[in-house]
Amino acid sequence: MGAIFVVGTTGTGKTKLAVMLANKSPGSLVISADSRQVYREMDVVTGKDHPKNIDIKGINLVGPNQDFSVSQWYDTVKPLYDKAQDAGRQVIVVGGTGFYVRALTSGIETLVVPINPELRAKLEKLSVGELQEILKQKNISKFNQLNHSDQLNPRRLVRAIEVSSTGLNTTISSVPTVTQPLIGLYYQDLEMQKKVIRERVLARIDSGAIKETENLLSKYGSNIQGISALGYLQIRRYILGEISLGELVELWTLDELRYAKRQLTYFRKQNVIWYDRGRMSIEEIYDHISR
RNA sequence: GCUGGGAUGGUGGAGCGGUCAAACACACGACUCUGUAAAAGUCGCGCCUCACGGCUACGCAAGUUCGAAUCUUGCUCCCAGCA
Asked: Which CATH superfamily is domain A4-108+176-186+265-290 in?
């Protein structure tokens, strides 16, 4: 049985659709592909408003002050995925983090190369130019494989050096393991999208987003990876008195809209069947893909 | 009414005689992506042109100058202090 992948833009009702699909096939496995919902204690702002009666995997994996990356998500989710597939259970992957989805659909070969903290500590002090030189010396073909943007991206350069340092053959040659198209949800009408997202922001504030942020900040401070989730930064500014409540709503909404655009850029290149939420309700989309 | 400070691109804000289509930032647009991906990074962003290049711009008008967003004068509008 092929897994179903529900992807797309933030605030389109992906989770709702996934839950409906799961309810259709008893024994389904639902996996969340969301790089922020992996954090515990970050519920309101990240929109972890899942129905209680369904067990979603891939969330609440670490504490807010812990570092995290795809590999951890992959390592916890992939065995479940395989096991369910082998057992003939329906697998539903739902989420807006394209990179995580990609880990399941195409695989990421270099995932086996672990992070090298000592190396990173050394490299993070260097300039982009210096990093480029190191990578060129270590592995010129790897350097040339990077495009212009990534060649100037310190984070990517560091990882490339890290991978090269293991002496592993790093030629990219992954073969997609999932070939069926993904189901993508988005809003064609940007005004409508803005309205929906704005309302969701308001709802999250009503649900205690500010309190949640205060708790996180007082417990862990502001230098944690999880806090980079949309919303926290702006809420923090509000708490510090830098912006008004109205500005908070506008800025947070804006961040979400920008994010949605980035998501679209990422998913656009992939094999996706798109559904316009402005024209179809979740129920209609459900009916459509259930046929 | 008097005195001082301003008027620059979608916005904030540099520039204060030539090297200015105008720093920097934001917004906006396009994009990249194999362990931070709600992250990180790249490119574009007056108009015409694929490009070389050309054209029009720095409140309005008139001057000075080889040359002005930058200097002078007048006008319009804004802000602050004094009445």
From this structure: P-loop containing nucleotide triphosphate hydrolases (3.40.50.300)
